[in-house]
Amino acid sequence: MMDSDRIYLIADMPGYAPQVGRLLSMMNYARHTTLEAVQHLNRQQLDYLLDARSNSIGALLLHFAAVEYAYQVSTFEDRGLNEEELAEWGTALDLGDAGRERINGHDLDYYLGKLEAVRNRTYDLFRSVDDRWLYEQEEFWYGKQANRYFMWFHVFEDEINHRGQIRLIRSRLPKE
Amino acid sequence: MMDSDRIYLIADMPGYAPQVGRLLSMMNYARHTTLEAVQHLNRQQLDYLLDARSNSIGALLLHFAAVEYAYQVSTFEDRGLNEEELAEWGTALDLGDAGRERINGHDLDYYLGKLEAVRNRTYDLFRSVDDRWLYEQEEFWYGKQANRYFMWFHVFEDEINHRGQIRLIRSRLPKE
């Protein structure tokens, strides 16, 4: 799905509706830069906290998977997370103290595996919809209308926002 | 141009080609969140440095205007910045030591004025192009092809990346 020769093209993607392909192009680029930003980090680096209120890079990676999963459920199934799903993803969604306590001790492969599994499900789900689906609206934040294109834009813009923080934290990791 | 009731819609925008409207929808949302992240900051807060290698929030704001100006020139005029333009924008483009030394002492209105002036020029420029223009490609990074849609996507994704850092810095400003 992620063709490295086409990583700088916002364009059609085989098997997807035109606008869906553009959206996935942007999601792919965002993920490409996330993966680059965390390359070769070890367990200690993934757990590192800049200060008492910082999120670890590992927790932010799991947050990306959690947000994407939550939007799969809300936009494709029109529901919130159930108890079982909240047990799996709730901490990574909320971050904060619980995130600092519970999300740690994992190698990079753990996080990459979660990201990949959720992303593969996104690829599958998007194959089933057309562009009209992206433009359907509902009430979203502050009583205003959002369309599904925006909701999925938000998924990758949240990732980019935290990738900026990951880069800042990475450049301040203690020297080995 | 920024209709607050339509801030969560990626959709057509009156006066622009369809894909251009979608791109501007995303640029508008990114800017909306940037403005929210810097609301009410005073001069000291805009100049605050998290540590010796940090960019100030003010410098990051000027960086957004500089990047956007540079892409106006590269994509609409197919050239790099000239000497005069580099004198105006070079420091904000590069940030780093020179940014820490030279970009400070301004109130929020100074930065907001720069952002608005450059954005208004973007709105004007985009009125002159059609969707085909967005899909024209040229060699870009690492010898790979990029289309203009990607180049402008990069303008707002760079803003979102640094907005994540602005939020991190803002939440760590010394208490008044």
UniProtKB/TrEMBL annotation, chains A, B:
Q: Which InterPro entries match?
A: DinB/YfiT-like, MST-like
SUPFAM superfamilies, per database record: DinB/YfiT-like putative metalloenzymes
Which named protein is this? DUF664 domain-containing protein
